[in-house]
TrEMBL record:
It holds the Pfam family CarboxypepD_reg. The keyword Manganese does not apply. Residues 1-190 form the Peptidase M14 domain. This is Carboxypeptidase M. InterPro entries: CarboxyPept-like_regulatory, CARBOXYPEPT_ZN_2, Peptidase_M14, Peptidase_M14_domain. PROSITE patterns: CARBOXYPEPT_ZN_2, PEPTIDASE_M14. Belongs to the peptidase M14 family. The active site is at residue 160. Its cofactor is Zn(2+). One of its GO terms (cellular component) is extracellular space. The keyword Secreted does not apply. GO terms for molecular function: metallocarboxypeptidase activity; zinc ion binding.
């Protein structure tokens, strides 16, 4: 997507390092504060650009993404908002996949000759080798990268690529030279982890069933798409993948992610369940949780228990309204 905010871009009459007018759309909304938020209610008018992106995420299977900004030089990773259960008492907010997100951010920043400097924009930004946790940088509500990770099953980081908010066009060649290796290497990371399909005992692909890794379950459980496919970004190591189908015991599968991907592909692991489960309705989307602050009422639970509790509630919800 070339630009999510073409009206804002057109509003910038001339290049300027600090000009802020182009930040908003034509209705004067900041689109990176316009998405549903998992930590607090974001009671704003959802803008057409935001709705279009949400619908797009709803109809395709996205696994990895990045949104490109200007005004700083850093790779920022989720969460942008948070509660004590995600670490805000320590001025940070971490996802269950924090190791993967730090790896993704470092993959990009370490290949950008200016981003990896300690303070390239001479600002009060305490990044480590060009990466920073979004909440630690500054908390925000309604951001796109948190939305993508929680509701769209898509790992996204925010890439700030220029100290100048709106640089001159003459600088484009240098931007390309500084970022091309980072962009290419980042795209390759869609091939880390494990992927496959979930079948019943008759070989029928099962859509909309929960596929999660034990010990890193998401507040909104990740599910198979309409083809029964699942994708889990993981670093090398051994994991237990848990498949949950309503009315059946969880099915556990052990996987070992090798240190190097083979032929630019994640580990392929199809999962055959020992029962017949012909689902009579194939959903158009794997967005399976209500767009409300999912973390809000779970602040008192530990980081280990809150996803399991919510997993039970979402599974029950799915069974009742399937």
């Amino acid at each position: 997507m070339p630009s999510m905010n073409p009206d804002g871009f057109e509003a910038v009459q001339k290049p300027d390092c600090f000009y802020n007018k182009g930040r908003h759309n034509s209705n004067y909304y900041d689109l990176n504060r316009n998405f549903p938020d998992a930590f607090e209610f974001n009671d704003v008018s959802r803008q057409p650009e935001t709705v279009a992106v949400m619908k797009w995420l709803n109809t395709e299977t996205f696994v990895l993404s990045a949104n490109l900004h200007g005004g700083a030089l850093v790779a920022s990773y989720p969460f942008d908002n948070g509660v004590p259960a995600t670490g805000t008492l320590y001025s940070r907010s971490l996802t269950p996949d924090d190791d993967v997100f730090q790896y993704l951010a470092h993959t990009y920043a370490s290949r950008n000759p200016t981003m990896k400097e300690r303070n390239p924009c001479k600002a009060k930004l305490e990044s480590q080798s060009g990466i920073i946790n979004g909440y630690f940088w500054y908390p925000l509500r309604g951001g796109m990268q948190d939305y993508n990770y929680i509701w769209a099953q898509c790992f996204e980081i925010t890439l700030e690529l220029s100290c100048c908010k709106y640089p001159r066009k003459e600088m484009l060649p240098s931007f390309w030279n500084n970022n091309k290796d980072s962009l290419i290497e980042y795209i390759k990371q869609v091939h880390i982890g494990v992927k496959g399909q979930v079948f019943d005992q008759n070989g029928t692909p099962l859509p909309n069933v929960i596929v999660e890794v034990q010990d890193r379950k998401h507040i909104c459980p990740y599910r198979t798409n309409k083809f029964g496919e699942y994708y889990l970004l993981l670093l090398p190591g051994s994991y237990v993948v848990e498949v949950i189908v309503p009315g059946h015991d969880p099915h556990l599968t052990k996987v070992t992610i090798p240190s190097k991907s083979q032929n630019f592909s994640a580990l392929k692991k199809d999962i055959l369940l020992p029962f017949r489960e012909q689902l009579d309705h194939i959903p158009e989307s794997h967005l399976s949780c209500p767009m409300i602050p999912l973390y809000k009422d779970l602040q008192g639970h530990s980081a280990a228990t809150k996803p399991s509790l919510f997993l039970f509630l979402v599974t029950l919800f799915h069974m009742l309204f399937k």
